[in-house]
Amino acid sequence: MAATRFALIIFAASLFLMLPDCCSGSFIGICYGRNADDLPTPDKVAQLVQLHKIKYVRIYDSNIQVLKAFANTPVELMVGVPNSDLLSLSQFQSNADTWLRNSILPYYPATKITYITVGAEVTESPNNASMFVVPAMTNVVTALKKVGLHKKIRVSSTHSLGVLSRSFPPSAGAFNSSHAYFLKPMLEFLAENQSPFMIDMYPYYAYRDSPKKVPLDYALFEASSEVIDPNTGLLYTSMFDAQIDAIYFALTALNFRTIKIMVTETGWPSKGSPKETAATPDNAQRYNANLIRHVINNTGTPAKPGQELDVYIFSLFNENRKPGLESERNWGLFYPDQTSVYNLDFTGRGAVDMTTSANITRSNGTTWCIASSKASQMDLQNAVDWACGPGNVDCTAIQPSQPCYEPDNLVSHASYAFNSYYQQNGASDVACSFGGTGVKVDKDPSYDNCIYMRAGGNNKTVTGNTTAMSSTSSTAHKGSSSLIYGFVLVTSLSILLNIQRY
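Structure (tokenized):
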């Protein structure tokens, strides 16, 4: 019996050790483009990224200031070799060695660099540099091998969906034969080096260019009816899944079955030219919020259910120097002043922005009080401290491990605390003031197991000091403070039960 128990303990321990690798799951990252003249400094960007718990960032070069800004942070970077450098890196191994020595090694491993993209959408560039991509990738990998980093930093190249000649139905997905000279050695390289096939894909453009053929809800992950692939019988409710599966089938047709796919750009613009009527903040939020849930839940696709798929959202900021239609300058999740264009929960587990109409149920006659997404962090913290202290709000629900703790950010926690005070004190305008940081809404902010109080709860009389919030209140709302001032420690048991990869 003792031997059996010992064996079980050993088995359980080995299972625990294996869990992080087998259950890592998919992640959401973000693209940090800098084609603008009004962006915050890289140091401030690094702080913003961490504030919103974004752990994966793609940049399009190896800018020294950016690499330094992300040093000693938990953020993992994907860095890029611009198309203009492909010729140089492809010609001589010494050029690749020098590039690695100057652009990567001085900052690694303090800056966590995990991917290098050699070239970006080369088949779409005016000066087609595709012939240089694989030789340049090979030289970069050789340079990494010389310093023992080829298994820690993966090398690939990004592509547009234009590399496919057919994408519908998904089972008929096929690569464009005109790119065969470039794609075949590329795919052989990826398979040999266990690197992902990187794709930039935008259902937005498919809808914008063919609104009569592509339903908007299908592009936004919200289709009420299913599109059937006649060859496989698979059912699709989103264009995103259909496009991913088209790539899977194209890879399979060439017998590259082990190559994983990574989406290195996708998103939706929040503003466009007059004819770009779908470029709105509401649609952008709906697309990205649905995308995040889809990815974090490891939903996979109809052809690859449960398949891990890592995705980068484009982009971090609106970029005012990008040419083209108005939409090109409005893909950002943040304005250059670091305020949100619309709010997203990057963990995929909490509510979307509660001040917009996306994905939130209206309730006739009932109102709630939530925190303004435009309020400063300091004002929100002071307001929460007051609500959870002198305001006599029970803030247990927003403490760690409680139903409203996630998403662990100040706006979400403040919204719960504000609403509780509001409902307890007659649901009056003054009870939702909070120094100007409270906002009344007629949409229920409840989500998952986090239920917001409704009118008719434990009502109390509003006191004269409703808005007299004190920054010295000490019955602190510790949950939100952890976002800014530290990390929550977890036990080995909670790790075992709640392995997450952000």
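Residues 2-22 form the longest helix (21 residues). The chain has a mean pLDDT of 82.
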